[in-house]
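Case study 2.
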Amino acid sequence: MNESIDRGATDSPLLEDTIGANLEKTVARHGDEEAFVVPHQGVRQTWLEFNASVDAVAKGLMAAGIDAGDRVGMWSPNYAEWTYVQFATAKIGAIQVNVNPAYRTNELAYALEQSGCRILVTRTEYLTSKYQEMVEKVRPELGQLERVIYFNTSDWSDLIDEGRTVSDADLAERLRSLSNTDAINIQYTSGTTGFPKGATLSHRNILNDAKLVGEACGYTEADRVCIPVPFYHCFGMVMGNLACSTTGATMVIPCPTFEPAAVLQAVQDEACTSLYGVPTMFIAELGLPDLDRFDFASLRTGIMAGSPCPVEAMRKVMDVMNMSQVTIAYGMTETSPVSTQTSATDSVEHRVSTVGRVLPHVEAKIVDPESGDIVERGSEGEYCTRGFHVMLGYWKEREKTAQAIDDEGWMHSGDLATMDEDGYVNIVGRLKDMIIRGGENVYPREIEEFLFTHPNVVDAQVIGVPDERFGEVIMAWVQLEAGAELGEEDLKTFCKGKIAHFKVPQYVKFVSEFPMTVTGKVRKVEMRETSIAELGLESAARTETA
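Prediction:
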């Protein structure tokens, strides 16, 4: 039997630096070359200048009393300050807690309290997100939060000024005291049982994942990487920022949140060689009415990840956008995030129909979900992975960590996959009750538990239904208290401001009962089929499964 198990190459050693020490090496090699460009803020820095900004923030945090192992929250769209905090916390051994900028009060309070953040760095507001208002609303219940720094106010310059009391020698000593296996980052993933879980990652986890992802794209110091994907997720901060810092490539941050025209303008103006995005981003860019006004001559490669990619969109990205060496990556936050990736030298067929092979120093296997036995090549099973990239665990959640990572160190993804004779992996479905909306992982249980808090709601069941733009969107079937009245818009209004916008149901159906199995389990498959028919979504469903 040819088993579905594969191991990546091990001929090139892993990095054993901390993130800060690795950045210093890049500065020593490429100090006068361009490192960081943020057009929407007018920022343009060499590696020497970028490192000086990082050190100023690092000293400020030290002056504020932040020790190695303390948690510092970062809650913002893609601004230069986000990246400075990312590298500054790494240099002083603080654990950065990534807070999704779409979070609202319930989610914010949970993340900050569960992680025990001492400092939160954020903006006062961005577009319709009133960050300061939300912080003030939940701050009384956050016992460990000592300070909030609004970086678009004088708070930021105050922090930098405080840091002048910390010497270069003090910072260097702190950096030398750190271990690359220390926890350095917490990222909250939507929870199947209601509350999100804090995937805890080390320097070694994310620095090496970034290095190997960059190598799969063939990055050198000559590359310029356009990063419109959010920093709060591994796609932005690891595959983007860290992949650049390990190779000397330039980080180009086109806009705070995704705007297709701004992204392509930055690609053209900054002569970017690489572009990132989830499939919906690339589809939006390709759909611009004035697409032909942009010059894609500089583009060579990039990464598409986050959700399954339509084959037609992939081909257009390669042909229309000049990204002949574009790669597909697959993984999860718990694996830093990438565990498989196509390479720039893979055939077009492999790049449009698979998620590639395992990264170097990584193992993968496909197992029968019931028995745990490895299945034959070509057979479906659960994708499991093991190696340097597997998280340290869920923050203060030992039991949930043990459910995800078995005794032999295998991370169980919950995704159904196949592996072909050459080791290429294809993701074919999900074991988990999970919805992927435009690259955002959404667990129905989390939304259901929130909907239960409405006084008129007796029960709620949440499903994903197909959508041509986002792949899937949220639909809630809701049972009301006897005699209670509640409209669809009323329920959506109840959600707004309390849960992230992408978790607010797009469709609501009020029912007296749910379809059930003979054993009393809700038949979500039947709910989905009924909803698709009633909403007239058959064409989107066919597109999704094509």
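The longest helix spans residues 47-63.
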